[in-house]
Amino acid sequence: MFANVIQREPPSARLADAREARGCVPIRVLSVGDDPLVHEGIRALLGAEHDMELVGEVGSEEFDSIHFMGLLPAVVLMGTDISGHGAIARLQAFDPSARVIVIASRSGDMRTRRAIDAGAHGCLLSSNVRVALAQAIRAVASGRRFIDGDSAIQLMQSRAEEDLKAREIQVLELVAAGKANKEIAYELSTTEGTVKNYIKRILSKLHASDRTHAVVICIARGIIEVRAISA
């Protein structure tokens, strides 16, 4: 883990006063993530923009202890691996005016949908960051939302095709853990026939060929997580 917080003169006024005093100063951007190469790329991209300033780079573990008052980011960039664990709610509890852009490493990631539902103001696929990041930052900093075309298509597909219910996700997690239908039925206090019906519905929603294929799809798209399987 690492933290590279760029020191700035701490604000002497209250948070709201500091926001109001910004005027035409550069948009303050905080980068959150655990991949140094991603930070490096973002640093290079923002360095070429006259109206943006990178105020810090922090890893996921440092995010919980970061001193937002000393940074006052207008826009926070974070990956889907971080956004789904209360990070957006924590940030907005401190400063509701801060805007979040989620960067997804792959298309069809359900964590992108969850991040938008949690309050993220924009999302980008990592493959589009080079050409669209500056545009996205300007858009959300001005109060608008920004969802790139590829992400918008995937979000619509996820809502239409992958709206799995909580019980279906439970079944998937148990399938991923190697449980047979009889064992799943015992764990969920239901019948084996009911479990089979759940699995049929899951395969249909995900357009999966079999239960193993369904698990692979769900892990890849962030519907279930490896740590939940091994818990």
What's the story with the biggest beta sheet? 7 strands, mixed
Secondary-structure-based class equals: alpha/beta
Beta fraction: 5-15%
Number of strands: 7
Spatial separation of the terminal alpha carbons: 23 Å
**Helical content (DSSP H or I, runs of 4+):** 40-55%
* Gross geometry: elongated
Average per-residue pLDDT, rounded, comes to 78
Tally of DSSP helical segments: 13
Strand order of the largest sheet: 1-3-2-4-5-6-7
List the uncertain runs: 5-22
What is the C-level CATH assignment of the largest domain? Answer: Alpha Beta
Total domain modules: 2
Q: Please provide the ordered H/E string of secondary-structure elements.
A: EHEHEHHEHEHEHEHHHHHH
Q: Rg to the nearest angstrom?
A: 20 Å
Summarize the structure.
The chain has helices at about 15-20, 35-45, 60-65, 70, 80-95, 110-120, 130-140, 150-160, 165-175, 180-185, 190-205, 210-220, 225-230, and strands at about 5, 25-30, 50-60, 75-80, 100-105, 120-125, 145.
